[in-house]
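A reminder from the course coordinator: this example appears on the midterm review sheet, so study it carefully.

Given structure:
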């Protein structure tokens, strides 16, 4: 696998990534590579233990931590969360009685995509900010940071610790790894890499700081090295295939995390979803993992329980996803055939614009407007023109970014099963409902 070091260096240079780490665990052996700088122009080299803000891969840590509590009998996956967070009943009414930890871990809880931080009271007041849902719990998949914020609060109530304290004491210390925290009062370590934005037209690479509140931390507040991510992945590999069993989670509960949740259809993100893990089938057996983007970073984790293989990439630039795509054929040449990240829209003739698709769709504070402009379908997000849409069979659409011309993750229009009218849109895994006309 030595050729991967050169491949990583070339891909980082080609995609204007200041620094990156690649870690591979295969056949019981580790291969680790680092290139570049922690912060552009600093001369501070990326090391094996450099921590990169991993964004939503934090959710896999939070989910695994909760499963430790499930294995210990402290939390029931299918018990109403309101049993632990009674304030949810005041916020959601009778719906609170059916919302479970399984729903929240699999993004089938119906919560808004983003966390609405309470004005006072911190995480203890979080549940009071959950005022409505995009769909009923269990009705389908809609990616939700708010759901993981609630899981973090649940962990705090059950353990009597802050979420950060519980992560350290219950999960990462037994795993023998040391993470950094990039939200709230937790100070990032001196080895935490900066995120970067890239203006390729002007050849500008600019460091950016992380902007995350402590309430959002369970959804995206960790920084880790690629080697740290592989250590977590080893828990989720079969011990007979190179996995490591630290004795934290019962094997049956680990298997539960890898099992696809019925109705969790993360269209455009993956082929299925378990508990804190996405499922990527590709053309063969399933890979699992998670992607994460923080402010100016892009990170990826993949694992195959059957072959005992895990791969992690951290990149301290928003262009890191392109680096990852460049590395996939290099990994394939090394015998590691990772499934593609997300289903592609079927090629074929573009369909006419559905007559009832235009309008505004909302998910919490996010507004997606679908408009016709110059005989093309366009997407406007929070009043900012974002993408051009091309409709294919089944009301699926491809997405082309207006500023860069690059293809984004596909989406789809969803119809009300009773009326047949388009009443929702799913994009980036998030479901948004059509905004009702105000009289």
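Designed residues:
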């Amino acid at each position: 696998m030595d050729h991967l070091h050169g491949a990583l260096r070339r891909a980082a240079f080609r995609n204007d990534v200041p620094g990156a780490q690649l870690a591979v665990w295969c056949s019981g052996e580790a291969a680790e590579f680092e290139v570049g700088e922690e912060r552009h122009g600093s001369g501070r080299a990326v090391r094996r233990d450099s921590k990169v803000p991993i964004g939503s891969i934090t959710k896999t840590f939070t989910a695994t931590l909760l499963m430790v509590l499930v294995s210990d009998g402290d939390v029931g996956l299918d018990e109403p969360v309101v049993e632990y967070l009674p304030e949810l009943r005041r916020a959601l009414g009778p719906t609170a009685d059916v919302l479970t930890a399984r729903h929240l871990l699999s993004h089938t809880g119906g919560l808004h995509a983003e966390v609405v931080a309470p004005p006072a009271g911190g995480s203890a007041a979080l549940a009071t900010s959950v005022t409505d849902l995009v769909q009923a719990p269990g009705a389908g998949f809609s990616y939700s940071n708010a759901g993981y914020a609630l899981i973090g609060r649940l962990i705090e109530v059950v353990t009597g610790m802050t979420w950060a304290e519980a992560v350290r004491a219950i999960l990462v210390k037994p795993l023998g790894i040391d993470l950094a925290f990039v939200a709230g009062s937790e100070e990032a370590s001196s080895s935490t890499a900066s995120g970067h934005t890239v203006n390729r037209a002007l050849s500008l690479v600019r460091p950016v700081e992380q902007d995350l509140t402590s309430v959002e931390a369970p959804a995206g507040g960790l920084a880790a090295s690629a080697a740290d991510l592989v250590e977590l992945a080893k828990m989720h590999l079969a011990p007979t295939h190179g996995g490591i069993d630290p004795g934290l989670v019962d094997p049956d509960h680990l298997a539960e995390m890898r099992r696809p949740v019925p109705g969790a259809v993360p269209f455009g993100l993956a082929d299925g979803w378990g508990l804190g893990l996405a499922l990527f089938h590709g053309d063969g057996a399933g890979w699992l993992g998670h992607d994460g983007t923080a402010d100016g970073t892009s990170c990826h984790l993949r694992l195959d329980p059957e072959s005992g293989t895990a791969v992690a990439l951290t990149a301290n630039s928003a262009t890191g996803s392109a680096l990852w795509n460049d590395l996939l054929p290099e990994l394939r040449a090394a015998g590691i055939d990772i499934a593609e990240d997300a289903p592609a829209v079927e090629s074929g003739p573009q369909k006419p614009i559905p007559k009832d698709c235009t309008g505004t769709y909302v998910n919490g504070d996010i507004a997606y407007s679908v408009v016709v402009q110059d005989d093309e379908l366009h997407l406007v997000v929070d009043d900012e023109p974002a993408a051009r849409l091309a409709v294919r069979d089944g009301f699926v659409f491809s997405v082309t970014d207006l500023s860069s011309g690059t293809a984004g993750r596909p989406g789809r229009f969803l119809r009300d099963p009773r009326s047949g009218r388009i009443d929702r849109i799913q994009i980036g895994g998030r479901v948004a409902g059509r905004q009702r006309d105000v009289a």
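The first strand starts at residue 19 and ends at 26. The CA atoms of residues 85 and 219 lie 18 Å apart.
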